[in-house]
Amino acid sequence: MKQQTKENRRSARIPISGGVWVAWQEQKGSRTVSRVRDVSAGGVFIATTAKVAIGAKLQLLFALPEGETRAQAVVRYVDPEKGIGVEFIGMGAGDRARVQELLRRLAK
Questions:
Q1: DSSP state of 54
Q2: For the chain, how big is the Rg over CA atoms in Å?
Q3: Domain 20-107 has CATH 3.40.50.12100
Q4: Are 21 and 60 in contact (CB under 8 A)?
Q5: Where are the domains of the chain?
Q6: Range name among 16-20, 61-65, 98-102 with the lowest pLDDT average
Q7: Angle at the Cα of 19 (from 92 to 45), degrees rounded to 5?
Q8: Is the pLDDT score of 1 beyond 70?
Q9: Is residue 24 a contact partner of residue 62, using CB atoms and an 8 Å limit?
Q10: How far apart are CA 82 and CA 47, in angstroms?
Q11: Pick the residue with more confidence: 50 or 10?
Q12: What is the pTM of this model?
């Protein structure tokens, strides 16, 4: 089931050609490692064929050049063949600073 939410996006997405991975899991679920396809200040698109429901809450762990970054997120969009779009709903100040630095680096 697809749900489009582009009109709800608050910040521009920046495509990532490769090299950014995220370990993620639903609460009480097994951990999955996937490639990040794009990122914004508000969330990421995770390339996966795993079945995840819209509204599911996820724990995310990124290994970035800027440093290990953790976030809580909620699934806002699902494309069963391409992946899931998630919105950040919780992140520490240091984690948010590392995401902002990633965005600056990618925008160059």
A1: T
A2: 13
A3: no
A4: no
A5: 20-107
A6: 16-20
A7: 60
A8: no
A9: no
A10: 6
A11: 50
A12: 0.87
